[in-house]
Fold this protein.
Amino acid sequence: MFALTHEEWQAVRLSLAVAANAVAIGLPAAIVTSLLLRWRSMPGRTILNIIVHLPLVLPPVVVGWMLLVVFGIRGHVGQFLHEWFGIRLVFTAAGAALACAVMTFPLMVRAIRLSLEAVDAGLEEAAGTLGAGAVDRFFTVTLPLMTPGVISGAIMGYAASLGEFGAVITFASNVPGQTQTLPLAIFAALQTPGGEAAAARLALISIVLAVAGLLAGEWFSRWSGKRLKS
Amino acid sequence: MSLDVFLRHRFPDFSADVSFSAPAPGVTALFGPSGCGKSTVLSAVSGLLRADEVRVVLDGIVLSDLPPERRRIGVVFQEGRLFPHLSVRDNLRYGLRRAPPGPIDPDETVELLGIGHLLKRYPATLSGGERQRVAIGRALLSQPRLLVMDEPLAALDAARKAEILPYLARLRDSLRTPVLYVSHAMEEVARLADTLVLMEAGRVIGCGPVGEIAARADLPLALGNDAGAIIPAEIAAHDDARALTVLRATGGAAGASSEGARFLVPRIGLPPGSRLRIRIPASDVVLALERPARISANNVIPGTVRAVREAPGGRLALVEIAVGDSLLLSQLTPDSVAQLEIEAGKPVLALFKSIAVQVL
């Protein structure tokens, strides 16, 4: 039962690559957003907070539709990217990664903020009195101390990206080898008469990957908890 | 050379209006009860609090015009605030690497603080006392223009305090960096401070050399159980036959004075010429008008009453006695003051046992 077909392997490989790209796109933005949200008196903080959390509560298909509106060939950003850089996101693996990044963004931000809130502002003050300016303080104190959150955010984002369905199929469509990630392949297999065995194989792989992701996250948070305890 | 601080700041439920000037270098202690605004002063001086109005001038440099990271004020926080992700060595280097070359030698400082064996450890594995010593070292190695300490011993138990105080005393004697020290423990102030700034409810109620302020009858310090004179002194001679040491007061900022009062204390194991401080508790000082014939008190010291004040409530009277350049303080009952007709300008004898004198 475990002999995977060429297409099934392709779906697994594509999923892993799309999830990695999603984290690469989403994580830096999530770090910046977390820092902005930490700044209590920032104008528009509540609005930013709501926007960040929208993908968590909206139907994924709505997020996919919104991506189409903005990044589609006729969308403002999509048109600009296409005309100036020749980049097309719709129906491409890059588009699938973007959809995953947007969907998993709230998870990454929440993980990072959790560890950012545990960073004692007093340590940054202390760094200031020792002659470190704002940028210096960020890279030598804040960032190292929030690293556990950044890494666990990356693990969460990666694991969740592997399972993203609605936004991907809406925005990037279901093209084998291009945008057909694991959940989409499972969906396609179930639509095909006699595809139950293929669906079961792929589902099992999904479960294994998800469990591995959660275990990695758990192990890491224990390790970093021990290391940074002060 | 001096440190001048002016601060005005209004919190919702508290306002501070503070102004003082202290000689630098030297240890200036801000002393007062909790909530009197001492820490507010430190935060404003180090730039961590944006005060409504603040002006800090050290040797002509207006530090308050600079952002905190360019003031070069080394701060030792109550809780240490060591970086948990850096080793002790890297904590110590943090300020050093960002500072211009300065007079403070890293190796000497590490040795002085006794932290050489901790360099490879991480803050999480240090004891409270070790952590505070590393924090002091980290602040010093940033070659600060001014070292600021916010109750560095407050979070420690008595044993750890006793462990660190000698290091601080050594620092005071070997350091040319001025120090601003916040405390509400008289013991630390008596031992370390050169200048005392007495605070209450956001105001400065007294400021001057520690010997002067500690013995002032009109300040609330004089009312406490731990009231007493603080006198810098040096060992004049040992009287081995009597197992006593003769101390000579070295006066305030004026330095050694040949007129300095002499005190007898139990034998001290230090060579003549050594400098130290003594504290003479006000409740142990007895006043007499004539020299008693045979008395166990070793110290019978002629002086002149400088001021007499009756404490509110009428249960206690405070008498300041000038002895050479030094000041003694005596707590008496108002009845004794009346019986002896003690008033300003009257010559008296101050009597106290040699074992009542605390050598700091």
User: Anything to note?
Assistant: Chain A has a mean pLDDT of 88.
